[in-house]
Amino acid sequence: MSYLHLSFYSTFALSSLGMAFHRTHLISALLCLECMMLSMYMALAMWPIQMQSTSSTLLPILMLTFSACEAGTGLALLVASTRTHGSDHLHNFNLLQC
């Protein structure tokens, strides 16, 4: 395994561990999601170089576009939930409560 693969795998693993264990604030969960998307983008962008292909793929650009949409939606949800609930703690958000 090369150092490039190790860095991608470790970045994705650390962000998923951060998502699993540090779920107190919504902003930390959104940052972990962004880190996961960035590691996937970097892996998809380096994939043609690793395979020694001359053609570029459209998949990294699509991933980056969806990542930007996800970040905008997440920040909009953060602002809306902070306005309605008063904080961004995840334990305050109960979907079963009317």
Structure description:
- This protein is mostly helical and 98 residues long.
- It has one domain (1-91): Orthogonal Bundle (Helix Hairpins), CATH 1.10.287.3510.
- It has helices at 3-21, 26-50, 59-85.
- Helix 2 (26-50) runs antiparallel to helix 3 (59-85).
- The radius of gyration is 17 Å and the shape is elongated.
- InterPro entries: NADH_UbQ_OxRdtase_chain4L/K, NUOK/Mnh_C1-like.
- It is a multi-pass membrane protein.
- GO terms for molecular function: NADH dehydrogenase (ubiquinone) activity; oxidoreductase activity, acting on NAD(P)H.
- Belongs to the complex I subunit 4L family.
Task: Write a brief structural summary.
By secondary structure, the protein is mostly helical.
Structural class: mainly alpha
End-to-end C-alpha gap: 51 Å
Low-confidence stretches: none
The name of the CATH topology is: Helix Hairpins
Beta-strand segment tally:
0
Write down the overall mean pLDDT. Answer: 85
Strand content: under 5%
Shape: elongated
> Which range best describes the helical content: under 10%, 10-25%, 25-40%, 40-55%, 55-70% or over 70%?
over 70%
Main location: mitochondrion
GO molecular function, one term: oxidoreductase activity, acting on NAD(P)H
EC number: 7.1.1.2
Family: Belongs to the complex I subunit 4L family.
Set out the fold topology.
Blueprint: H1 3-21, H2 26-50, H3 59-85
Keyword list:
98 residues, mainly alpha, 0% strand, elongated
